[in-house]
Amino acid sequence: MTNRYRDADFDTDVIVIGGGPIGLTTACALAHHGVAFRLFEQRREPKPNSRANNLWARPQELLAAIGIRDALASRSHRIRQINTLLNGKTVEPIAIADVASPYPDVLYSGQDVIETVLAEQVQAKGGTVERGRKVVGMEQDEDGVWVSIATVGATDEHETEGPVEKLRCRYVVGADGHEGFVRKALGLDFEPEKLPNCMNRQVDARLRWRRSTDFDHLWFFYYPRGFCGVLPVWEGYHRLFFLSDDTGLPDRDPTLEEMQAIAREVTQDETLTLSDPIWLTHSRFQHGVSTGYAKGRILLAGDAGHLTLPAGGQGMNAGLHDAVGVAWRLAMVLNERAQPIVLTSYDAERGGEHRRLDKQQEQGFRNSVYRGTLTDAAMRVAASFLPNIGELIQGTNDLQQLTVGYPDSPLNEDHLGRLRDLLRRQVPHPGDRAPDADVIAADGTSTTLFAHLYNPDGHTWGWTLLAFDGQQAQALPQLRTAIAAASPWTFVRPRLVLGAALAQPDDAVVLSDLDGEAHAAYGMDGQPALVLVRPDGHIAFRAPAAEPELLLAYCNKVFGSSNE
């Protein structure tokens, strides 16, 4: 798909500022949707050190939707279990891969590996990472944005040299990190909250100890002064980090000998040996979120809008939601298939989610570092009867981000009875992730709902209309009428989910659900109903099938009068 109204007044549709994981993913997502873009990165070379290094299940689903998940998985370890020790006492392991997703295993490699793979994907999709280019100015008006780009100095990437290039685009995505240009230029900067009296010391090195060095486990140790993690990174290395009270600690990068000594003490393994370090670092902690994730035609993604804490490895993954979420919206707008509410919903959804995550991260961090003897004693007691104590310490029981949703999104509309939902457990509502379920295609082959929710019929930013018969044989006439109501919007692709009704050859695509798995996943047994799912796999709309006028009104509100 390509923008229908490109003209010579614009150099490109979208300029992406920042070539880290989020900027690169944004570029991949835009390319997936056929949107013209240019991607600028100030650094001349990728950073060699591995910072963020994990991909959770829900971000993997989103990356799969834009065709880049498998490339990342091919250069990652798969994590299936998190082991936790509390002051030397083993607590119930977290079976992290025991989740309802096609991608339950957590992927671990390293940010340097992730950036390399994503840059290769940008190039494979026809794009270019323009390195050594720095944004020095932006001006937006009603129709577009002027962006001034300079070349960084040969010896100092913070300086510029040569002429400034002035480019015209329709939209800008700022993915240039917390210290970047875009957020500050928009007047959306914030003062981070600093967490006192704590420090992180970290090393990436080869590890030998008496516990497993298999690359499918994570190890977390809660000790009197703090919290330690032992994580796999790529090429046979492990990362060890120690978040702790900073009393008596020198304010500098640690030595390998210091890291080995504290590792032996915390893990209670005097044989533990670290060698061949590739990164030794230290840091202190602060966090915060921008008051907005968009202003006019300029939108923020990832660290450009927040400063996150290292609790549960959530930060980069949250930015991946941003990248995918901003791209499908821009694709719809540039193809004149969206009302303003589609783009403005990005700020409401992702800004709100980052603020929620910030509170979760702070709680997890305080659980990990600011515990004290009384809290430790309570945790020791709780660990004996709470199987999920490890998750509680992390601040969430959903590290995999499958429950990330937008309950207050302006795109949400719900016309199904709340009392009816109360009688069903965990019924997904507008704003929630649309669940997967096994169904049977018309040719008798096994398939899943996910196979029809993302890129339906090859339409990259298409929406999917799930028409459930409620396991009632007489429901087809209502479903046909409802599908006809949405037919002017050809990117809304209907799927008949039938537990009892028998379709005809000229009906929409049929997914058989005789065992009721899909109906149960959506709480749709007993009433024919409609569920409209967005390109990112979140539910937008629910209504009874008998009221197609509600669907028609929603499509007019969100997409415009029609696409004819």
UniProtKB/TrEMBL annotation:
<dbReference type="GO" id="GO:0004497">
    <property type="term" value="F:monooxygenase activity"/>
</dbReference>
<dbReference type="InterPro" id="IPR036249">
    <property type="entry name" value="Thioredoxin-like_sf"/>
</dbReference>
<dbReference type="Pfam" id="PF21274">
    <property type="entry name" value="Rng_hyd_C"/>
</dbReference>
<protein>
    <submittedName>
        <fullName>FAD-dependent monooxygenase</fullName>
    </submittedName>
</protein>
<dbReference type="InterPro" id="IPR036188">
    <property type="entry name" value="FAD/NAD-bd_sf"/>
</dbReference>
<feature type="domain" description="FAD-binding">
    <location>
        <begin position="11"/>
        <end position="350"/>
    </location>
</feature>
<dbReference type="InterPro" id="IPR002938">
    <property type="entry name" value="FAD-bd"/>
</dbReference>
<comment type="similarity">
    <text>Belongs to the PheA/TfdB FAD monooxygenase family.</text>
</comment>
<keyword id="KW-0560">Oxidoreductase</keyword>
<dbReference type="Pfam" id="PF01494">
    <property type="entry name" value="FAD_binding_3"/>
</dbReference>
<keyword id="KW-0285">Flavoprotein</keyword>
<keyword id="KW-0274">FAD</keyword>
<keyword id="KW-0503">Monooxygenase</keyword>
<dbReference type="InterPro" id="IPR050641">
    <property type="entry name" value="RIFMO-like"/>
</dbReference>
